[in-house]
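Our preliminary data section would be incomplete without showing what the modeling component actually yields. Below, a chain of 291 amino acids is followed by its predicted structure, encoded as tokens that our downstream tools consume directly.
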Amino acid sequence: MVNRVGRRLVSVGASVALASGVAVSPAAPAAAVPSMVFVTATSPIDTRLGRTQVVHCPPGRRILGGGGYVGGAGREVVIDTMIPVSTPTGDYFEVNASATTRADGTGFRGEWFLVAYGICGHAPAGLEYVSAVSATGFESTYGVSVSCPAGKRVIGVGGEVTPAFGFAVLDDVLPVTTLTSVRVTAFETETDSPVRWGVKAHAVCADPIPGLALVSATSPSDSADKTVGVSCPTGTRVHGLGASLAPPLGEAAITALYPSQPLEHVRLEAREDFTRYAGNWTARVHAICAT
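Predicted structure:
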């Protein structure tokens, strides 16, 4: 992995181990999202190399955001897809995770499971789902951004590696501070992808709703695995969630990103890969909150 760091130009700033928040104050906010619910679904436990788990919204409710959790896989299964999906027959949140391949061609063969989390509610005013796709190829990293239509704000995010075979990991699934766009970045793991790959960014957009704010928290900068959480301001609830890592460059991955029940808090867990990362790094968790 070290021989590829030179072609990944990343600027790393100082770590701030405090929560921060940016309020978005529209002149005329729309109504709050009614009837919000938190839903989960868990996969079987087995030794497969990759799996997709979905969690469906109740009838009549729309998907706003969500997350995932990998259990029992140590450092060798990574989340490579977390996306809101809206269809004419119902909405759901989809999570995919894949076992990575070590440099010697071996990989994890133990039992593991995957949990999908979804945040659903009745459609807020101006609800719209938008996405954008990066270029594809054999580069070590790809990224892409997607913006909400003018006047709308991000209330939920999603990102995916395509195709999701465990050769690349999500590094950023990141709503920008103004909540006008979403940035998704992924890096190859220590084993180069044998197929062309890229990333896709997803944003759940709506007319600005009351109390809309992005709150974030950053872990300490060190060489340990990371767990970091952030809470919404009093009186607001989690609508969407995101994460970003700096600068493991594919040598650490998101293994859990999920909201609490009730929808007041978001937790991020990230782990270094099987061969570990030599330097210090940080993990940052993001919650999109509103009343």
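Helices lie at 2-5. Residues 2-5 form the longest helix (4 residues). Preliminary results of this kind motivate Aim 1 of the renewal.
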